[in-house]
Amino acid sequence: MATTADFKNGLYIDFNGKPCSIVWFQHVKPGKGPAFVKTKLRNLENGRILEKTFNAGEKIDVITVEHREYQFLYADEDAFNFMNTETYEQIPVQKDLIENSDLMKEGQVVEMVFHVDGDEERVLTCELPTYVELEVTYTEPAVKGDTASTNALKEVTLETGAKIMAPLFINTGEIIRVNTTDRSYGERVK
């Protein structure tokens, strides 16, 4: 058992029977009344952000979470299949546990987050690297003088089938760096 004094960003707790991580917290000591802690919690099962206010000194359950590297092998109808890079053990992961899964290509290394409870383990989520490098397989060619603004974007299709917005100067066959958190274009890879 821990208390609100032990809060820190990234701490994993059990909130209403669900595994959550603390994304943000702030201790508040008003001039009148008891102190409290405002938090934003990410539900690790569905990715939703919850806002919760705890009374100062309130007891919380800390859960054990492990991060392990896995390599993406292939996708089938129901799940994505991964292999542990150390033990070569293969596991299927439900498609809804992975955010922006269409930016993941075969052979890519990802970080799996496991909830460990005694001898029992269960996958909570799969985290892609912040940036991935993917080839552009299709885009409309840009026409000179097509726009008056300097930051115009067009839709490009990547090798994984994902579609994102990229600058007009990006052409088919180029490799670009994509941010997996907000699906934004980063830069061309030379």
- Which topology of the largest domain does CATH recognise? OB fold (Dihydrolipoamide Acetyltransferase, E2P)
Overall, the morphology is: flat
The biggest beta sheet reads: 6 strands, antiparallel
Cα-based radius of gyration, to the nearest Å: 21 Å
What does the model show?
The structure is a single chain. It contains no helices and 16 strands. The protein is mainly beta and 190 residues long. The chain folds into 3 domains: 2-62, SH3 type barrels, CATH 2.30.30; 65-127, Beta Barrel (OB fold (Dihydrolipoamide Acetyltransferase, E2P)); 132-188, OB fold (Dihydrolipoamide Acetyltransferase, E2P) (Beta Barrel). It has a 6-stranded antiparallel beta sheet, with no helix packed on it. Strand 8 and strand 9 form a beta hairpin. The mean pLDDT is 89.
